[in-house]
Amino acid sequence: MTTFGFGLSFGAPKFVDLGGRRLAYDEVTPQNPQGTLLLLSGLGSKRFGWGRQLPVFGQHYRTIAMDHRDVGDSDPFEEPYTMHDQADDAAALLRALGVEGAHVAGISMGGMVALNLAQRHPQLVRSLILVATSAGGRTHVGPTAEAAAVLRPDPGQEIGERAQNTYRIICRPGHFDSRPEEAELVAQLARYKPMRSAAYLRQYEAARGHDVTTHLQDIRAPSLVIHGDLDPLVPVGNGRMLAQRLPGARLHEYPGIGHMPIMECPDEFNRDVLEFLGTLDDQSKENA
């Protein structure tokens, strides 16, 4: 059992083997799941970042939070890779777990992986929840100068302090002023099996190459786009563009929220996601 602040506890990781390379994941499943929900983390982040969502969504859905390759409890990966490769990892994990179709939620880089998954493996994706993310390419709205600086972190800085500094910049102004325990949680998560600099750079370069702009009209999975209007790292214009170009997508903008809705306003986020998924479930029953 691994316990962090805010009462977040995780059991020993589970693994799927992809030809001798392991991907780690956590899973919470109710007695009668309404479906499967896959949670994909952002750049440099581990599955633990979904700690406020995993037990809540797990009351209704088979909920799986995975570590990307080269991150957390997943095996190291020493060669360059792309968003396509990460999407194929997610597809392989779902197939290894016997999942024929899943709702897929991704934040930031995780949303990029989710978009590539929907484009490359559409039969596996029942819906998309795209959080603080972008289609990439020429349409991408870049970060503020201050937020851009955190994408190239100082390797000499202690990793917990580095994570705290990063989150103070990308979350809404003052978010941590009255939440010292939450700032400590950010540091604890970063210190658990800390990501190596070379691994971070591989992931960063993969994200830089992300571009699904020419494929958005072909993605038919129902989509919910969630974005904070104060996001300095992936500005809200990216979410608005996704909502405009993904067929039938819904957009929820959170006023006064930065890059991390899953942390900054978890109750509202969880409610909106469950409401979206519940609507899809209702539609499926009507069409049955």
Automatic annotation (TrEMBL):
A single Gene Ontology MF term assigned here is: triacylglycerol lipase activity
Matching InterPro entries: AB_hydrolase, AB_hydrolase_1, AB_hydrolase_fold
GO annotation, biological process: glycerolipid catabolic process
Answer whether the UniProt record assigns the keyword Ribonucleoprotein to this protein.
Answer: no
Q: Which UniProt keywords apply?
A: Acyltransferase, Hydrolase, Transferase
| Ranges of residues in domain AB hydrolase-1 | 36-264
Is Nucleotidyltransferase one of the keywords UniProt gives this record? no
**Protein origin, superkingdom:** Bacteria
PANTHER family in the record = AB HYDROLASE-1 DOMAIN-CONTAINING PROTEIN, HYDROLASE, ALPHA/BETA FOLD FAMILY PROTEIN
Q: What is this protein called?
A: Putative hydrolase or acyltransferase of alpha/beta superfamily
- What organism does the record attribute this protein to? Deinococcus peraridilitoris (strain DSM 19664 / LMG 22246 / CIP 109416 / KR-200)
Q: What is the lineage of its organism?
A: Bacteria, Thermotogati, Deinococcota, Deinococci, Deinococcales
